[in-house]
Amino acid sequence: MVRYGVSADEAHRFGLPCGGTMELLLEPNPDGLSLADLVTGLEAGQLIRRRIDLRDGKVTLETTGEPEELARSADSLTNTFGPEYRMLLIGAGLLTEYLASMAIANGFTVTVCDPRAEHRATWSMPAVAVLAGMPDDVVAQFRLDRRCCVVALTHDPKLDDLALLEALHSDAFYVGGIGSRRNCAARRQRMIEYFDETEESLANLRGPIGLYIGSKTPSEIATSVMAEILAVKNGVIVPLEMQVAKAKDYQANVEREGALTPL
């Protein structure tokens, strides 16, 4: 174990905040096979607990069900590694570009799927992979895990509906589609009528997506959607008053009664 920041000169040298220290565990000769096993597990979407015995450097790996904070005891250091957060966006439009840029800034790896060549041709973000397959096929091949989210943004039922249906039967932590209250209700009805879904099986389908902030422009809508995704990711319970459908219904009802003057 090597420690930096004990003195003021070290803290300044390494850019540490006032009173901050940094400890590093050095593994001069790590086991290559163990590292390969770790990478294989992460690529398969697993959470892996890696324990290092501080007395002899021996490493043990085991899968786990929940993320855990870094833990250190007198004789071991335990860290849990998980797959990266991934976002799959259906539709390569302006709203998608805004949402993709926000997702990247928040640590997501972003992939866009759009089978429409004319929409792919206008895409201008080289950091984002763009796939041309049909969305439901791409979702099936994406190996969604609980660190994935899927957002449908085309407004085209042929593309959005099947992708959402495929994603709903995965471990993705967030599945939602763009649309007004009326369009989202119609989407649910189509899924129930033509795909044998039920209200219970559609319980995790989000739409209208986003938090209610009165958003109108693509950038504002993207901010609203990204905020909801982060809230779900971080386990925050969003009040009903902040959910788009509930908030709009409430506001419309109050306005009808003359008790609320729109800003």
UniProtKB/TrEMBL annotation:
- InterPro entries xref list: MoCofactor_Util/Proc, XdhC_Rossmann_dom
A Pfam family = XdhC_C
**Which residues belong to any copy of the XdhC Rossmann domain?**
87-229
Q: Which residues form the signal peptide?
A: none
UniProt xrefs under PANTHER family = ALDEHYDE OXIDOREDUCTASE MOLYBDENUM COFACTOR ASSEMBLY PROTEIN, MOLYBDENUM COFACTOR INSERTION CHAPERONE PAOD
Tell me the protein's name. XdhC Rossmann domain-containing protein
State the organism of origin.
Cupriavidus numazuensis
Q: What is the lineage of its organism?
A: Bacteria, Pseudomonadati, Pseudomonadota, Betaproteobacteria, Burkholderiales
